C-alpha cells in the first residue's frame, strides 16, 4: 500500500518542482535536504526504536509522509518557495519509517531466506511501480497538468492516512537493550572489523542512488515533455524489474553472491553507454530496461550480505538498531556526495551534450568499487543466525 502511494506521487514530484520553478538546482537542494534529514533522523530516533516501541516510529513515518503530500497540495505552486523545509519534512518521514522497517526486516529474516525475501520485496516494489506511475501520468495528461498533480497528491495523502490506521493492527514487537549513540563510530575505528569494508561499499551504493533516484525521471520528462510518457517508462521498466527480482530472488544463493554482484555492477555500468547517444525517449528506455534487468544482481547480494553481517553473531544481533543506523549513515554519506556532484556540474550542463552522461557515468560506476570492497564478505558471513529476532 505504502509503495503504491510513493509510486503514485514520488515519480512525479521532481517533475512538479521543475515545472513550477524551472530550476535544476532547487531539485538538488530538495533532495540533499531530504537525504541529510533522513540520515540524521535514523541516528536520533535510534534510542526510541531500540528502547521503546518501534511500531510507533513506523506509524509516525507513514503519517509524516502523508502530511507532506497534503502540505504540497495546499501550497500548490508556492511549494517551490519552501522546497528545503519540505525536503526536511519528507526526510523525517522516511527516516522514522525506514528505521523501524529495516529493524523489523532483520528480525523476521535470517541468512537462509534473506535473498528470497529481498527478491519478493523487490518484486512487490516493482509491482507497485508498474501501474501507479502509469495511472499518475495518465491522470496528469488528461487533466492538463496542475489539476492532475492535485489529484495524485490527494490520493497519496489518503493512502498514507489509511496506512496509519491499518498499522495499529500490526503486532507490537518487543524492545530490549540500551541504545549506544557512538556504536557505529567504534566499529569503524576497530582494526580488522568487517564494517571497515562494508561501510564504504554502502557509501558507493548511496552515491549512485543520490542522483539516479530523482534525475532519471526528470531526464525522461525533459526528453518527451509528457508525463504520460514517464508513466509508460515506469510501467515498462518496472515490469522488467519485477521479472528480474522474481527470477534472481529464486536462484540466488549465498555462495553465488560474489559472482552475481560483480555481473550486476558491470552490467548496470555498461548500460550507461546508451546515455552518450542523443538523448531521447528511446535511448532512455533502453537504459531503463537494462538497469531494471541487471540491478537485482547487484542490490540483492549487497543488501543480504550487509544484514547477514549484522546477524553474524549473537552480540551483533543485539545491536541491530545501531548497525541498521550505521548502514543508513553510509547510504546518507553516499547520497549527499552524489547530489553534491550533481549540483557542481549544473553550471556546465548547457555547455556540452556530454556533461549529463558524464555525470551519470561518474556516479553510476560506483557499484564496481562497491563490489571490490565487498568481495571478501560476500557469502562468508552467513553462519550466524538472528538470535535476537522475535
From TrEMBL:
Q: How does it sit in the membrane?
A: Multi-pass membrane protein
Q: Where in the cell is it found?
A: Cell membrane
Q: For this UniProt entry, which segments traverse the membrane?
A: 24-45, 57-76, 82-105, 117-136, 148-170, 197-224, 230-248, 260-279, 285-310, 331-349, 355-374
- Name the predominant localization: membrane
Q: Which Pfam families match?
A: MFS_1 (PF07690)
Q: Which UniProt keywords apply?
A: Membrane, Transmembrane, Transmembrane helix
Protein's name in the database: MFS transporter
* Species of provenance: Paenibacillus artemisiicola
For this protein's source organism, the top of the classification is:
Bacteria, Bacillati, Bacillota, Bacilli, Bacillales
